Each structure stands twice: as C-alpha cells, then as structure tokens.
Amino acid sequence: xxxxxxxxxxxxxxxxxxxxxxxxxxxxxxxxxxxxxxxxxxxxxxxxxxxxxxxxxxxxxxxxxxxxxxxxxxxxxxxxxxxxxxxxxxxxxxxxxxxxxxxxxxxxxxxxxxxxxxxxxxxxxxxxxxxxxxxxxxxxxxxxxxxxxxxxxxxxxxxxxxxxxxxxxxxxxxxxxxxxxxxxxxxxxxxxxxxxxxxxxxxxxxxxxxxxxxxxxxxxxxxxxxxxxxxxxxxxxxxxxxxxxxxxxxxxxxxxxxxxxxxxxxxxxxxxxxxxxxxxxxxxxxxxxxxxxxxxxxxxxxxxxxxxxxxxxxxxxxxxxxxxxxxxxxxxxxxxxxxxxxxxxxxxxxxxxxxxxxxxxxxxxxxxxxxxxxxxxxxxxxxxxxxxxxxxxxxxxxxxxxxxxxxxxxxxx
Amino acid sequence: xxxxxxxxxxxxxxxxxxxxxxxxxxxxxxxxxxxxxxxxxxxxxxxxxxxxxxxxxxxxxxxxxxxxxxxxxxxxxxxxxxxxxxxxxxxxxxxxxxxxxxxxxxxxxxxxxxxxxxxxxxxxxxxxxxxxxxxxxxxxxxxxxxxxxxxxxxxxxxxxxxxxxxxxxxxxxxxxxxxxxxxxxxxxxxxxxxxxxxxxxxxxxxxxxxxxxxxxxxxxxxxxxxxxxxxxxxxxxxxxxxxxxxxxxxxxxxxxxxxxxxxxxxxxxxxxxxxxxxxxxxxxxxxxxxxxxxxxxxxxxxxxxxxxxxxxxxxxxxxxxxxxxxxxxxxxxxxxxxxxxxxxxxxxxxxxxxxxxxxxxxxxxxxxxxxxxxxxxxxxxxxxxxxxxxxxxxxxxxxxxxxxxxxxxxxxx
Lengths: 413, 413
Known about the structure:
- The structure is a homodimer.
- By secondary structure, chain A is of the alpha+beta class.
- Chain A is built from eleven helices and 15 strands.
- Chain A has a six-stranded mixed sheet. In chain A, strands 3-9-8-7-6 form a five-stranded mixed sheet, with helices on both faces.
- In chain A, helix 2 packs parallel to helix 3 and helix 5 packs across helix 6.
- The longest helix of chain A is centred in the middle third of the chain and has 20 residues.
- The N and C termini of chain A lie close together (11 Å).
C-alpha cells in the first residue's frame, strides 16, 4: 500500500450532511489490515429502497452475486462493507461467507437477511472468515450514528490514499433532499457497468425502479467513463439507497423515472457520481496527473467512447504523460489501434488547448516550449478531433508511473 | 533508449548463412541517432518475389501505405529500412518522403521505384528528411555484400537492446533452401497482423502468392500471438522476399500454397517467425520475465486467444509477475473481463506447472513457498484451464516493470 496522499487529492472536503434514516458505524475487524478500520455497517430505516449496478466480469465476486440476488426484493435495511478481502474466486466457501455475514448482520440490525447488502474489496482468492463479523456487527449496530461519513469512506479504502465522498442538496417538489455518496478504488479500475465500490444514499422517496434507472443512466458518463489501468474488477459494485425519509417534510414520492419533478434530482445525482468518479481517477495508483480525454467528430458517440478508451488505456500514452511529454504520435497510435473509423489526414490533436497536430500532420504553429510548459500541469486534457461526424465523448484516467508498478508489484506479497 | 542488454536475450546467436541473391549494407545516416547505424539497404536479385503483412492501424505510416501499393506488382529488388523516424502521421510530406526515398534507392540499385520496399521505425509525427538518403544509398549499393545479417539487424533497432535474427535450412524438393529473418521491436507491440518490423528472406523459388499465404498463416500464432504493451504500432511491417536462386541447384518452383512439397518449408518458415517473435518478447521494454500464457478448455480457439490476450495485456497481471507474485486473483480478474465464456467454478490456474487454483477456488494443495520459488524463474508460464471446451491458444508477453515506465517516460523528449 502506498501511504502518501495522492497529489491530485481534492483540496477541499465537503461537509457531509446527515441523511435521515441512515446510520453509520465502522470498526477494525482485522480482516487483513492491522490497526485500521476495515468494516463499515450502514443501517437504513424501514422503507428504504435499493438499486445497484455491478461488474460485467464473468468471474464476479460472491458479494456481487449476493447483491444481484437480493435486489429483486428492492428493500434494504443494512449494508456491510469490508476491505482487505474481496471474497472473490472463493467458490462455495465464498457463498457461505456471504450467507453467514448477511445473517449476522440481519440479527444485529433486526431485519431479514435479504434486506442486507454486502460488498467486499481487497485480495482475490483468499477465503473470507465471516465469523470475524460475529460480535463486531452487533457492537456496530448499537453504536451506529448519522454523522461520520468521512470515517465510513475511510473504512472501505484499500490502496486508496484518501477517502472519497461527495454530496448534493437539491429540491424534489418543494422539499429539500440530500444525496451523499462515497467511493473507493485506485487500481483494477476499468468499469464495465459500475466500478470499484461506491455507495450513494438519499432521503428522497424514490422507488427502487426509479433509483435503478437513475443509476443505470448515471454511470454511463461517470464511472463507466473512467479507467485507471484497463483492468475490470471482479467486485465492482455501485449501490444506491433511498430512505424516503424526506417524504415527512413534503418530498413527493417518485415512482416513475420519467417524472418531470425528478429533473433537478437527476442532475444532482449525476453530479455526485461524476464527483466520486473523478476522485477515483485522482487517486489512481501512483497517479501524478489527472487526464481527461475528449474525442469529438467521431462517427457516433459509441465510437468516440471506444477511441477515448483506447487512448486512456494506452500504456504508451500514459507513460508519456507521466514524463510530461506531449507525445501526440502515441495518441495517433491509440486512435489507429481502436479499430474505429478514423481518417489520419483529418485528425487534429491538442494538449491543454494547444493544438499540436492538424489534418494528419504536425501543426505548423506548434511550439514545443509552450506545450512542454503546459504538460507540467497536474491536469492534462487530450482532445482529439476526428473530423468525421458529431460523435463526442469524454473519459477520465491518470498517468502511468513507476509508483503504479511498485504498488502492484508488492500488493499481495 | 535503454542501453543494458535484456537479461532475457538469447544466450546463443545463430550463424546466419548467406542467401544467394541477397546483399546487405548498413550506414549511419544521422536520421536521429548519432554514431550508430540507422539505415539498412537490402538488394535482391532480379526475379525476387515479395509478400507482406502490415499493421491494422487506421492511421498507418507512409511506408506501410507505400509497401501495400507496391506489393501488387509482387516483385522486389530493394528494401530500405531506417530507424529513428517512423515517417508516420507526417501527411503529404510523408508520402513525398517515401516517393523520394524509393526513387533514390531505385537509381542506386538500378531498378524501378515500384520494386523498392520501405520501412521506417522510430518517432511518430516528425517529418523524415529523405534527402539524407541521397548519396548514402548509392554508397551502400556499391558496398552491399551477402554476409552481415547481424549488422543489418542492428541497424533497424530503436529501443531494442539486442539484434534479433533467426535462420532455418530445410529441403524443398531435393534441394536445400535457407530462410533468414530479422526483427526489431521492444515497445508499442500488440500486433493485429504483423507487428513491428520484420524481414524474412529465402532463396526458395516461391511465387509471391505462395509467400503471401505462408506469411498470412505464419503470423497468426507467432507475431500475432505476441504483446508487449497492448499498443499496436502505426508501422508494423513484416515483409518476406524469395529470391528463387535455389532453383539453380534444383529447388522446384512453387506456385501453389497447397503444394505438398512445401510442407517442411512451411514448418521451418513458421519456426523462424516464432523464433523472431519470441525474441521480441524477450526484448520487451524493461522486461525481466518472459511470460507464456496458455489458455485451454475454452469454447473456441478464438475465445482462448481473447482470454489469453486479456491476461497478457493486464497491467495488474504483468506487475504481479514483475514482483514475482503468483497473484492468480489477477488472472481470474483478467479472465473475467475478457467478455468471453468462462465459468468461475470450473476455472483452474497454474504457474510454471504448479496448480494454484482449481474449480473456482484456491487449490487445497497449493504451497505458497513452492510457487514463490517458481516465480523467481526468468520464464513464467501461466496456464488457465476453463473446462468448457477444446479451444486452446498461447500468447507471449513480458512483465511490466518500472523500467518500462522509465523508458517510455523519456523516449521522445
């Protein structure tokens, strides 16, 4: 684990308001890490609706399978998250561990096991000893309180160097409602639905179908437009919980995703997801630069996404950024290998607004000194204009540094 | 450029026999590197047939486009290779540079420009000053001689740490024929047809159609089953030349790829390609481990290839290997993200013959000390058994080290 906080960490941390109907507690259960919190219990009031999106991995973790199954009910009373062990590729033992954890949590909270959601993150393939939750979860249920969102975000970290939270307050009908979110993730980040672990809570009275719809559309340009290392986790989980407690002060119950009253909420919800996703990029393992890749002029937006991802996942582009080198030749390479329509002779490329290539060749006005200076910035925007159509997309990533290799060369051992 | 020779370099270098009808010469033209050879001229006798496969990049280099066009004629008299500048993404200037180079070479050799093949490797996006070839190529044509294959292989290097050659002698009919090959490449290696630059010469009397057929089938399990960093070059070029000079001592002329007399030759030809491809993996930028990924039990061989490539391209798998960590959890992750049929609970994984995971969980007999010892080997074999069908494939790659990042963070600047 790297210990120094990422230089790209946000400088300001938001005050996280309380969400009525949600209580949090954390503990050090000794799952893997010594002397740090590694278990989060979130308890939700009766009436809380749940939704979730998960990794598209063909080898998902046991908790992912557990959550998928429980979402059918749509009701949630508890969320148990542990860091240090992903409970992935653990076979029958893994399934038994999820069942046991849920029953321990259900007993502690006073609900049914199928109202308990689980997420695990950490090493893959090691059996998770769920008996460690016995006792701990009971204590946590007793001490759970509404306030410590930052502590909760800290308890779910693995190689993360800072806890990631985001919040928004927005009107639903005439009532104020709140959205709080947290996320963890620094490596094995290349979402194919959601990525890593992220949990969003709101007091808005939304049905689970509405919540699911918000999640599904919300992740496309946030978590799904993010890559650290092209490696999709077996554990990617994004869960959303709506306690509905804001109904008590007049928030309307929303049961259709197309409800016009949902407009401001949808925007705020998406902003929370986008904020969390950007924080994940800012905490990419070993990251020293936040990289925004914009592709425009593609034949379609899907094509733009594929080209943007090809650039964002290219080790050669990422190492060039680490070296503060505006190596647009490697961007050309990454466009070329994407397999999407591209015409070399129409291609333009800019770094932080400075156009370095135009119409398939070096921009005549390109000044190496000016662009070299721009590459020193901690935020690099690569913009590629294909000149073919109106397809546009944007993805976030980070640079590839020696620290990434160091972190991942020693993580398990 | 890294200077120390890769620890994975072959310990024995083959004696490269002369191929009648091929003469070689190299020079330092100062294209980019100072004080080292950077131009290769190969001159072939009249009657030489040519074939080639190239990058599938949508943004190919000017020399790739030039070669594609000239292959229609099927005849070759000269090959000009320069290292240091790829003449890629150089627009109209790039096309003019290829035309000028070919006409200079044609004059020097005494042939038509459309019998001249070109390949360039090095930085992308910098204009190539083809006037530098003027004079040099004339001198080279005068001094060209049959012997110095190693010098030729050295002249085409960029970040390579050792020259790559391979040879085979085999019977065609009752006559002995020879196949000599060379390759360069260390980074931006993820072939989608051929990869990097490679040139194969033979005195066998093969038509260009036969040669093309041999190349096309030969690359599938050699150069196309190789990845260093998932980044497909804009310049990938594999050219084969058959002088036909062996006809003088009785080798039969082969004009059909299905000719049964071609059997031994096909095998030897493939072995030369496989040898060169493995040498490219052994010289992967910063590589300290040669990694062979075998996937078996897939639904099809295409599916096996995709899963093998997903493993071989995973930064997390590659950094784990660099850290001598048998992190099979990351192999599971890479299988899961490939998007191909896989059943977690049937999956088995072994490192260098030691099974670490079985039926979707840790192998009970798995001994950490034993596998840790095995991971110290410079050659690591990862074998994944999916247990679904008979699809099998094998790809080669290398580990991902801090040196890769260092090499590529400073290459252009």
